[in-house]
Write a structure and sequence with these properties.
alpha/beta; 18 strands; 12 helices; five-stranded mixed beta sheet; single chain; 28% helix; 366 residues
Length: 366
């Protein structure tokens, strides 16, 4: 016989489907169960609406009466671009609500639960909480810290090199690892690279996974002085895929206009020191724009800046079984660590073999 945990696990699986497409909203899954059977289910749709509960209620129709709603995040209680979900739940005469976590958004923050209980609907909170927090770590980070969750993706040799001393990097890892890298892109809101990487590789930064090609995460280049070529693949395709450049103030207005005319959005970031943007301020700008999940793919200086600022929340490290040597280009530039106690630390939370390569996932602990 299925339990609350079983039904919540189904809701969590559904929530994952929205990752990368629902920002600035959280990715939520909802399941309606009656007499031991699913009568309706859904997840937050592209652009953040309709919400998961609304989709599930619509699928259930009249069968929602007397059902239990399993939802991965507290139903919203405020009027936005859609009516409050808790009002829809009450109107449908749902008998019971099981939620994984409370929504920390000040517009909700327990009020959704309170209104459900005031309407006589029992609410239980906590089933699947750890998994729900991990799925929406980006949303929770944006609410708490005003910035998106940052995942740094590294593809290196065993000795942590991303290229030879001559700059050759394609390809260190194999096809399976590269496909997994594209899957990572598909569940993030945006992909960021430094201008040196963009100039050296001339990447597209698009999702090339069968069935997910429609996903178009924002492409972001940190380019203080607008050095990126106007004929680069990123710029030339900016009208098809959202493309932002984060630059310092004071660039040539004609140069800025040239990028804008080609569909690129230029965002000004204050300087931390001469010639370098304040990476913390840059992340806050992205947070205000609604981004919740940011995948950083290099290069070494950008990764180092984020690590030094203690803003890398997850590391996804692809290691290939080769050794390049000390004259190769390191995955991260200097971050000024003098004592081991100063070094950023992570806990390994996942490991999987991808052909001859290994993918390790780490969560920051300090």
């Amino acid at each position: 016989m299925s339990t609350d945990r079983d039904w919540m696990e189904r809701a969590l699986v559904l929530a994952v489907r929205g990752l990368g497409e629902v920002w600035p909203n959280p990715a939520v899954g909802a399941v309606l169960v009656k007499d031991g059977q699913i009568v309706g289910e859904g997840w937050t749709q592209k652009g953040g609406r309709p919400h998961a509960e609304t989709v599930a209620l619509a699928a259930a129709g009249a069968k929602a009466r007397g059902a239990t709603l399993y939802v991965t995040l507290e139903p919203c209680s405020h009027h936005g671009k859609t009516p409050p979900c808790n009002e829809a739940v009450i109107a449908a005469s749902v008998a019971r609500v099981v939620a994984a976590i409370e929504d920390p958004d000040p517009r909700v923050s327990g009020q959704g639960f309170a209104k459900l209980r005031a309407a006589g609907i029992p609410v239980e909170v906590g089933e699947g909480a750890a998994a729900a927090r991990e799925i929406n770590f980006g949303f929770l980070t944006r609410i708490a810290e005003g910035r998106p969750m940052v995942t740094a993706k590294l593809a290196t040799s065993l000795d942590g090199r991303i290229a030879t001393h001559a700059g050759e990097s394609q390809w260190i890892t194999g096809e399976m690892a590269r496909q997994e890298g594209h899957r990572l892109r598909s569940d993030h809101d945006a992909i960021m690279v430094g201008v040196a990487t963009a100039m050296a590789d001339d990447p597209k930064l698009t999702v090339r996974v069968p069935g997910a090609e429609h996903r178009k995460p924002v492409r972001i280049v940190v380019d203080s002085r607008l050095r990126l070529s106007l004929t680069s693949q990123l710029v030339m395709s900016a009208r098809e895929v959202p493309t932002w450049i984060m630059a310092l103030p004071g660039n040539d207005p004609l140069r800025v206009k040239a990028f804008v005319d080609l569909g690129v959005e230029v965002l000004e970031v204050p300087a931390e020191e001469v010639g370098r943007p304040d990476i913390g301020a840059a992340l806050k700008i992205l947070g205000r724009r609604g981004l919740t999940r940011l995948l950083v793919e290099g290069g070494g200086r950008l990764i180092a800046s984020l690590m030094a600022a203690q803003c890398v929340d997850r590391l996804v490290w692809f290691r290939a079984p080769i050794v390049i040597g000390g004259d190769g280009i390191p995955a991260a530039a200097a971050i000024g660590v003098e004592r081991l106690a100063q070094a950023p630390r992570w806990k390994r939370i996942g490991q999987v073999a991808l052909g001859d390569d290994v993918m390790e996932t780490y969560a920051r602990t300090a």
